[in-house]
Amino acid sequence: MRVVVVGGGISGLAAAYRLVDRGAEVVLVEQAGHLGGKLRTGEIAGGPVDLGAEAFALRDPRGRPSAAIELVHAVGLADDLVHPAIGRAALAVGGRLRPMPTGTLQGVPGDLAALDGVAAADAGRDHDGGRPLLGAGEDVSVGALVRRRVGDEVVDRLVDPMLGGVYAGRADDLSLATTMPALAATARREHTLTGAVRAALAARPASSGPIFGTLVGGVGRLVSAVTERLAAVDLRLGLPVRAVAADAAGWRVTIGATRDPQTISADAVILATPAKPAARLLAEIAPKAADNVGVLDYASVALVTLALPSVDLPELSGLLVPASEGYAVKAATFFDRKWAHQRRPGVTVVRTSLGRYGDERVLQRDDAELATLAHAELGKLLGRELPEPVDTLVQRWGGALPQYAPGHLDRVAAARSGLPATVALAGAAYDGVGIPACVQSGWTAADRILEGLKP
Hints:
Belongs to the protoporphyrinogen/coproporphyrinogen oxidase family. Coproporphyrinogen III oxidase subfamily. It comes from Planosporangium thailandense. Keywords: Cytoplasm, FAD, Flavoprotein, Heme biosynthesis, Oxidoreductase. Its main location: cytoplasm. Its cofactor is FAD. By secondary structure, this protein is α+β, with helices and mostly antiparallel strands. Among the domains are: 2-38 and 63-77 and 221-296 and 404-452, FAD/NAD(P)-binding domain (3-Layer(bba) Sandwich), CATH 3.50.50; 101-202, protoporphyrinogen ix oxidase, domain 3 (Orthogonal Bundle). It is 31% helix and 25% strand. The chain contains 15 helices and 22 strands. The strands form six sheets. A seven-stranded mixed beta sheet has the order 8-7-18-19-20-17-21. Strand 13 (241-247) and strand 14 (250-255) form a beta hairpin. Helix 1 (10-21) packs across helix 15. The protein is globular and about 65 Å long. The model has no long low-confidence stretch (mean pLDDT 96).
């Protein structure tokens, strides 16, 4: 069995890992000159810092080890797993840092009294109307449901910054069923929003210990460790995939420059790419699937990491900033506070995030201007003038974060149902952001291919 995996991010790497483990011959093609996609570790002030995702969930929604943890163990990195020293974040609201209210699900409250002045909620709206909030199979935007039940301020001050920190998107645009599946499920049987939140929280499996973890030296080490175990894989880096076409033997994949193309014959193909390239490659072989995939949009973000002369920060992991507060910075991680193993003598490291879906103008500044803006806004958010940084690092991710509009799950299901048995899709575009979701997506795609190749 020869399988071509298109895309060398963590989803493509996970798919290749699974296929090799099951005895398949794999050719992995990646347009960039390196593997790992948005999992990359750089250096600032003499120490490592992640340039994309910095951590991963340790458990899946059922309470079992997440796919990321399974992969960490499989590649021999379990002894290098570390957890946040501080997990508590704050909201920057009205010129103050306010503790994140407890008892919420991605900012959606289960108890309006616990909002403690962070946001004003209209309790009268969340009345029992005698029927579930959502119909069977119905999907709406998170913002639409929460605004209707408890008012605008809860969305603008709580839910929007929470979702913005994960997706760089807006609550009014993001699918409830995709971004909060547990809440969508309880909303199909509960009559109030607060009741649905409490039911979703109660359904979580009992667990103790940390929720998130990372690796000593950065999550980029996971990419290196997986790659080392793919010695038998034919890696083709720095080559675009131009076409996928059917032939008598299976599939013909054309890669490389237009003037000097190369052709790879394969029994199966996994597309572990963003949605637009996947739609282009599917246009001839599965046009209806291409139509469903091609509508997905993306947000661009920039991460600005500042190494400051030692300053005293609040005892927090970081802060979130609602768009309504008027800042370009939408989140900040107090790196030294959150990750005690990464502390550098005499230096305080803060990682800020900028860029929201539909408002990417802030990212049109050059790197120096972006770093200056992040430094100035961070000082305002903390209520003090900060010393000039001794080092800065700007990492841009253009079109990095998929935006899941209502109906996303149905569109993905329709796309996959229209694919030939030996073609599969994998990645954040379809199955969710976050390292565990992407790893699981790659494994599921590999399993689909192996099933499709059975006589």
